[in-house]
Design brief:
Chains A, B, C: InterPro entries: ARHD_Rieske_2Fe_2S, Cholesterol_7-desaturase, Rieske_2Fe-2S, Rieske_2Fe-2S_sf, VanA_C_cat. Chains A, B, C: One of its GO terms (biological process) is methylation. The structure is a homotrimer of 342-residue chains. Chain A is of the alpha+beta class. The first copy, chain A, is built from 7 helices and 17 strands. Helices cover 24% and strands 33% of the residues of chain A. In chain A, helix 2 packs antiparallel against helix 7. Chain A is globular, with a radius of gyration of 22 Å.
């Protein structure tokens, strides 16, 4: 069961170009395509004629044409024409609300009429030229909520990402979680430490000494249905940490849009929005490469964790203080699911 | 459920040579092998001793010897001997009626005693030296009836095979379907058109101008259980089209023997029998290569259509006029299935 | 259902070195690791914190540390510590009795308190310097009992291993099976024959004429739960065969530890202990290579036999005289299983 009355990141813009894109989101098998003006539409990936996937077709004159026998589908899910046929009585297929915004294609897998674009959270880093963004997409074979847990408890960095962003002090620093409406915030502050390799690189790229004592922070934000945005950064020690002036820090937002595919798989849109040297495209590429490696380290752990949970379905997992971010996020998902059904 | 009381193409002759061939047909797991005189036999692919597949064995002195412990099986499914054993009381396995004819190995998956070789349709092109044949075999992961639908409605050529045999005029020409007993015929005639690339090549190879206006025809014949033979060709325009003299046309029969493996997979024996330049073996190879590419274009569409139908089992597909060939063919299959059971 | 109250070979010593080893045995998903002193321990491959597999972790200070969030597990299945946490109330996981002996790591998948190391059979060849051992491990996708059948009836050598150890005389020589308590012995003696290629090589390596007439023997011993040890060898003819003095024979023990993974897969630890030229490590390597090839010939047969048995679950297999070794071995397994449950 998924929160279908919500906006999810469905694709990166360049995934939907000349050819339609078939993708399953929240159990809904969809096809995304661009119409004449470049606007993206999504309908079920099922031709009402013989059931062929429309994603094997092509776009012509604003219509999605089935690659099997030429039925032309409109963005409302109604057949528009077909050679030699009257299509008026043809059964319709579902269509989905789609928005392209902030460098992503968003979809609302639920009722189209409830899809209010204003419900997409404002993403300042995506529109403000002081920020630069780079990211990628992984398909991960586990329940999307295991990824939320993963990102709302960064103690795993010490173990899974020991060579890049992990460090012993993460384990040692206390973590605090609070809930504000549907918003969960888990924070950890590590003052007076050595920056780990990734952050030393970031300081260096930002023309700051990399090897001096720093204050480090991680502030994870969960928003339904499944977005996790993490404010991260380091500042030269003693200047206020998170609140230090830009001139002595390197700060970023780790961007995680976690879009369910099936009950045991999801699309993981990962990236980093950084608040320094935004014009440096080489730096963007370099960070993306590093981050891609880091997030691929999570994959095996999460996929094998999923297999273990399927094997031992009755075992209760622990909910420690470090797990509070994930626990609270799931609680919100569960409440919204109950409301959605009710 | 399959029409088991019928002849199917099981293999091409060179597939059953030195080594036995294991193949599942209509859900029956069989092993084919050649006896001393070269004649082909088929029995269940199961050794009554310990259940090993006989297809891993070898042929010796007209017997199929199990490669595990040496049980020698006869073509009637009775164990003939085994080192150090009396085999009289051994349980038998099923044997199947097999015929090698017209360049194919045919099998009757049902009751052997009902298998009358006279029921194999006469194939003139296979025995008349004025014709040449070339073809191949694909394993396709979809219900064999989706392939029948595909071949009884050639409007898909416009979309799936746009670069070779498809052309807009196929869509535009009316199609007519008639049923004569268990024989379904779907015809389409396109007069005064430009030949598509494949047929331009065929005209050229037949020493005819390729780029003049032609009349083109497609006459699809379905015969139970699942054979589709399609008369196809082009003639220089104005000479009578299908009835034009051989000197102004290039004509062929597209040969499709569609043999079920499981409910969602089949063996697709495809080929072309041509009625021009039969001695030109290079041309045979060239046509086979071209046709092999064309039929591989259908594969992805059919296999993904199958996946869609499994995902949405309750959706009714449309039965348009262009679908009449497939609809009528399935009606015959359903009637024969009901008779078979009753 | 498996005989869990028994010792099985779980791994070869070098499989459990720096990194923990995840392996499923008798349906139990375990992780093996070496503590500070080098001793091997095994616990369930499931971290009680969030269900991650402990086999993705590492060993530190005698503890198995989870690679996700750092929970440190002890060899009794109790969490020992975790950064920032009190672990006293954490749920335990199962731990297993493990012994390293005779060049193998042994595990008792059942109740740890019943695991008496004295129940591991004495293996003289593993401790006596007059013997040398070499072997390997295969994962085979079939019921472990099919492998027991295979090894307790060596008539298959004639067919499956025709190029190495098979020969017609195996089929022709009578076989005798006897049961002594839980010990099944199947013997075959072939006197006055030519040695097959493998044994000619063995004679040559042992400085004996390879091409003279020999007496050959095969004495298969089954011990529960699933160990098959086969005394094999050849002696120059007329010196007493099996009882001939060492100076005129080459003799070995084929070692087969067959460890169930799931109902339809097992770990096959194969090898040969030889009683000649024990210091010749090149010979050890050469025999291992040859044996590895021979046992890989069994794999396809066994895996396809398994598929056939799954396809025809109701068919009874024959129990001929040659099958008596397997039949008696399974009878002992069935009796012990019944006792285990009762």
């Amino acid at each position: 069961m998924f929160l279908k009355q919500a906006w999810y990141v469905a694709a990166m813009p360049d995934e939907v170009a000349e050819k339609p894109l078939g993708r399953t989101i929240c159990g809904e098998k969809m096809v995304f395509y661009r119409g004449k003006g470049g606007q993206v539409a999504a309908v079920e990936d099922f031709c009402p004629h013989r059931g062929a996937p429309l994603s094997l077709g092509y776009v012509e004159d604003d219509k999605l044409v089935c690659g099997y026998h030429g039925l032309a589908m409109g963005c409302e899910g109604k057949a528009l024409d077909m050679p030699g046929q009257r299509v008026k009585g043809f059964p319709s297929i579902k269509s989905y609300a789609v928005e392209e915004r902030y460098g992503f294609i968003w979809v609302w897998p639920g009722d189209k009429e409830k899809a209010d674009p204003a419900l997409i959270h404002h993403l300042e880093w995506a529109v403000n030229p002081e920020w630069a963004y780079g990211g990628g997409l992984y398909h991960i074979s586990c329940d999307y909520r295991l990824m939320i847990d993963n990102l709302m408890d960064l103690t795993h960095e010490t173990y899974v990402h020991a060579g890049s962003i992990g460090q012993k002090e993460i384990d040692e620093a206390p973590v605090s979680t609070k809930v504000e409406g549907d918003h969960v915030i888990t924070s950890r502050f590590m003052d007076g430490i050595q920056a780990p390799p990734f952050w030393q690189m970031a300081l260096r790229m930002n023309d700051l000494a990399p090897d001096v004592t720093v204050d480090r922070w991680q502030i994870c934000h969960f928003h339904p249905p499944s977005h996790v945005l993490i404010e991260v950064g380091v500042a030269h020690a003693g200047h206020g940490g998170y609140d230090a002036p830009d001139s002595v820090k390197a700060s970023s937002i780790v961007v995680d849009f976690i879009t369910p595919e099936t009950e045991t798989s999801h699309w993981y849109f990962w990236g980093m929005a950084r608040h320094f040297k935004p014009q440096d495209t080489e730096l963007t590429a370099r960070i993306r490469d590093g981050q891609g490696k880091i997030f691929s380290e999570d994959r095996e752990m999460l996929e094998q964790q999923q297999q273990n949970l399927l094997r031992w379905p009755d075992r209760q997992l622990l909910k420690l203080n470090i797990d509070a971010g994930g626990v609270q996020s799931r609680r919100i998902i569960d409440r919204l699911l109950a409301e959605q059904v009710g």
